[in-house]
Amino acid sequence: MLKILSLILIILALIGIVLGYIFAIAHVKIVAEPGGYIDAAGALLLLAIATMVYDFVYQRKSESGD
Questions:
Q1: Given a cut of 70, is residue 7 above it in pLDDT?
Q2: Which residue of 13, 21, 40, 41 is surrounded by the most CB atoms within 10 Å?
Q3: Is residue 66 in a domain?
């Protein structure tokens, strides 16, 4: 279950990175108000967190012999 959630987080982060760069290139304010598009730095941070969670879950599963 956690593996699926972390994969979803990674996918969302990658989408956020792409959107962030597209809007940055277009010179549009990325985070103008709450609910705006995630910026590239925020997406990279989300990707890093998701990757750490995925690694942690994967290590736990391999230790339990699953």
A1: yes
A2: 13
A3: no
